[in-house]
Amino acid sequence: MTTDIAVAKSSGAQRFPWRRYLSPVYLWAAFGVVALVAQVVVLGRWIAAGNIHATPRDYDISTARMVITWTEQGLMAVGVVGLSIYMVFQSRRAGGVTFWATIVWGNLFTWWLSPVMAYVAPSPIANRYALNVVSWGPYIPGWHTPRPQLHIETFFAAQMFMFPLIVLWVAVQLVCLNYVTRRFPRWSTLRMLPVFFATGMISDFVVEAFFVPITGAYAYPRAIHELSLFGGHWYQLPLINMVLGACLLSSPETFMVWIAQRRNRVVHIFRGSEQMATRVQATMRVLAGLGLANAVMLIYTSLVGAVPLLGTGAVPTDTPGWIWPR
Fold it and tell me: Which of 130, 199, 228, 275 is 20 to 30 A from 244, comparing alpha carbons?
C-alpha cells in the first residue's frame, strides 16, 4: 500500500513537474525577489535625489542623553554584526542555511519598509540625535504623512538594523513555548495560541521598554493617552502597537519553528528545497527567508501605519525636542 502511494506520487510529480514551483520555498523566494526589486527602486530614486544626509540639528539634548544614545547604538551594532557572523558559522556546522540564519539575514532587508509606519501620520518618531538620514518615505507610492520632516530613518538606534534582532525575541519566545509544551504535551495547537500571544506580549513589552523609556531610541508622541502605558508622557507605550508587535514581530517565525519541531519535519518555508543542490538550496532558502521577513514586516508596518486612523492624542508636554521639534 505504501509502495503504491509512493509510486503514484512519483508518477504525479513526473506528469506535472511544474507543481514543484508551487512549493513553499519557491513561493516565498519569489516574494523575496519582488521585495528586493521594490527596495532597489525606492532606495535608488531616494539616493538619486541626493537624500543621503542627516536631519538638521535644531534641538537641545543633554550630555547624559547623548551617552545613552551612543551606548544603545553601539550595543545594536555589535548585536547585528555578531549575530550575522554567528549565523554563518551556524549554517556551516549544520551543513546548510538554517531557519535562524534566514530570520537574521531576511530582516536585514526589511528596514526599507520603516516609512510605511508613518504612511498617514508620524508614528513612531525616532531619536533625531541618533545616526540618521532623511526618510525615503516620499518615494513610496501614496506616502503622504503630514510634517514628513518628522519621520527620519535611524541606523542603529532602531528601525534600520533593529529588525534582525527579532531572532532573539523568537528564541526567548520559543524557550517559553517549549517549556509549556513539556508541561502540557497534550495541548493542541489551538490551545497554545493564547500562550503565543502572552509570550509575544511579554517579549514586546521588554523590547519597547528598552527602546522607548530606557534608551529613548524612539517614541509615540501622538498615541492616545488613555490607551497607553505611561500615557501622557513622552515615553508612553500604546497598547494597540504592543498587541500588533506581539502578534506579528516574532510570533509567525516562532510558530513555524515550534510546529516544525512538534511534527518533526522541515520548517514551512524550506519545504520543497530538501533535494536541491547545496548552492541552489542555500540561495532559495535565503530568498525564502527574505520573502517571509518582508511579508511579515509589510503587514506589521501597514497596521502600525493605520493605528492613527483610530485617533491620536495631544503631544505630551514633556516630549523632548530631539523627539518632536517644538
Answer: 130
In a domain, 7, yes or no: no
Grid cell at residue 229 = 502605558
CB distance 177 to 199 below 8 Å: yes
Q: Taking 80 as the threshold, does the pLDDT of residue 276 lie above it? A: yes
Structural domain includes residue 94: yes
Give the integer Cα–Cα distance in Å for 278 and 274. 9
Amino acid letter, residue 291:
G
Flag whether 273 is in a domain: yes
Structural domain for 210, as ranges: 21-310
| pLDDT band with cut points at 50, 70 and 90 for residue 18 | low
What does the mean pLDDT of the chain come to?
88
Copy the grid coordinates of residue 230: 505611561
Percent of the chain with pLDDT over 70: 93
321 in any annotated domain: no
Residue given cell 509575544 in the structure block: 200
From residue 227, how far is each of 211, 241, 242, 315 by CA, in Å?
19, 10, 11, 14
| Bridge partners for 238 per DSSP | 228
Cα–Cα distance, 18 to 210 (Å, whole number): 48
Q: What is the identity of the amino acid at 169?
A: W
| Alpha helices by DSSP H, 184-310 | 189-209, 239-248, 251-263, 278-306
- Residue 86 has what pLDDT? 93
CA distance 94 to 192: 29
Q: How many domains does the chain have?
A: 1
Q: How far apart are the first and last CA of the chain?
A: 75
